[in-house]
Amino acid sequence: MNTAPPGPPLGTLSDVLRHSARRFAERPALVAGPVRLSYAELDRCVDALAARVRAVGIRPGDRVGMSVARGPLALVASAALMRAGCAYVPLDASHPSRRLRHIVRNAGLQVVLCDESGRAAPGIEALTALHVDGDDLVPGPSAGAVAEDTLAGPSSVAYVMYTSGSTGVPKGVEVTHANVLAMLADALPLFDFADREVWPLQHAHGFDVSVWEMWAAVAIGATLVAVPRAAQQDPECLAELLLRHRVTRLHIVPSVFHHLAEVVEEEGVNLPLRNVTFCGEALNYRAIRSWTRSQPGARPAWCNVYGITESTVYNTFKQLTDEELTRAASATPIGTAYDHSPALVLDEELRPVPPGRTGEILIGGRQVARGYVGMPELTAERFLTLPGRPGRWYRTGDLAHTDEAGRLHYVGRQDDQVKIRGFRIELGEIDHALRALPWIADAAAVVQNTPRGESALTACVVSRYGAGHPDSAQDGRDEALLGRLRKELAAVLPDHMLPGRVVRLDRLPLNTNGKTDRRALSDDLSRRN
Fold it and tell me: Which residue ranges does the record assign to the AMP-binding enzyme C-terminal domain (predicted)?
């Protein structure tokens, strides 16, 4: 088993890369089309870009925006910013300008690292831009190690990840180097890593699965294969890439895996993976069985992990048994918590619930993040101490129960937060955007399952105007209404938060507290279907 590299204690993620550059100097670290960097070359590229960052006056402790396409530059740029003692803040160029401007203001950004695609990001025009391109993937001569210990330490913030917010604005979570190193220390020994592993670098750096994807690979000396845009959007291209590079492992969202499994079965592609690890959503057992049917030879180990941004990516691990894959229980098994990242299932009064009873998951230990940027009240509400239990704990809002052996089974969300294609989404943020449209009097977003078993967003809207009015939601075909709705929402919401269906109603159902009854609404839509 190849786990975290031995040696002196590592204080920062930059130390992890430096250590692997010595231990695996000539081993391929990053493959992206014609680019092929060894670990020693990757380290030199990071050194060179970190020197550029320092040369423009960026100081240790600064937060710096990062707006680059997913792929090789995301790894080099984020590692360089951390080596310069800074925290990187992902800025997705496809997101609306209002969202990006909020992040820029809230994080106090002055500088952004951007590639050609990132230069066009709306809302970052006022930032000083430090441009990166393919030249930053060409290793120069070694300039000698930088004294990183003077720039960052374990308690320094490594990145600020913005998640969806129920108040209509995203929340920035500050995660330290120590948080990520704690995850690696506890999680890496749980995976049966071979000496030479290869896995795709495919998740956007604004999605915190990318943190595991990049830094678990660096820690064990794996080879990262950057997934080009065409393969990100086309499961056939993705399957071809996995086959060509002889990928050994997948870290993947179940909805993405579903499409890949369909292609693999239909095309008869043989991908002899050693491991598939699911994250971000409830398991899709049908896709797993489809994959198993189509693949001769040894089966991969099927694993499921659970975690959230505020407790640093992953907090539990579960290797699925054949019986569990066959039974496909309604509650998703997520296994047991890490040694230094304990999980509790508590009731509304923060008291333990017995096995089989549903409660809220609280995560404690070394992976609990600092809190939310500029939101002290919300930080105090969600990051708390528990009587008789050491350290800080985070209230996840996720519901689960334990079995008699203490293993966790995920049930769902306590509030209106959902996960769609791996993205954590507050339905309240979509409600907020819908109700801001001038022609909508009331609205609510709900999640429905498609015939293919995937989760999809539906917008339920009540028009502000009567029938016959030019702006009435009662006029026009549903397709035209949906097109209009998505176009207007695209000004304030990213693509993954845009509804795929719209339903027109006279009014929304209310519960006894006078609030929108989202469950009743969802049940009504199910009956209509």
Answer: 429-515
